[in-house]
Amino acid sequence: MPTLMGAAIAADGGHGFTAGMSLLVATQLITLVSAVVLLARHRDPQAGQRRPVRAKAAATQSVT
Questions:
Q1: Cα(7)–Cα(22) distance, rounded to whole angstroms?
Q2: Are the CB atoms for 25 and 19 separated by under 8 Å?
Q3: Buried b vs exposed e over 10-35: b needs ≥16 C-beta within 10 Å?
Q4: Which of 4-8, 17-21, 29-33, 50-54 is the least confident region?
Q5: For residues 1 and 27, is the Cβ–Cβ distance under 8 A?
Q6: pTM, whole model, 2 decimals?
Q7: Distance (Å, whole) CA 5 – CA 37
Q8: How do residues 18-38 score in pLDDT, each as one tens digit?
Q9: Among 12, 36, 48, 64, which one has the highest count of C-beta atoms within 10 angstroms of its own C-beta?
Q10: pLDDT: is 30 or 59 the higher one?
Q11: Can you give the three-state secondary structure of 18-56, one letter per residue?
């Protein structure tokens, strides 16, 4: 990414910094959209539902 930003800054005479920052912003937006898509696909459909926890029988027995 630094090489691409440097090339964009060097190639565009007076507005090089703006071109470099625009390239950086565009790549970060692509990364954000990709992450949201991957997380949406990975999400468990039952993630919001709570399941009851079963009590262990051995833990509730007393020793006499």
A1: 13
A2: no
A3: eeeeeebeebbeebeeeeeeeeeeee
A4: 50-54
A5: yes
A6: 0.54
A7: 26
A8: 888 888 899 999 999 999 988
A9: 12
A10: 30
A11: HHHHHHHHHHHHHHHHHHHHHHHHHCCCCCCCCCCCCCC
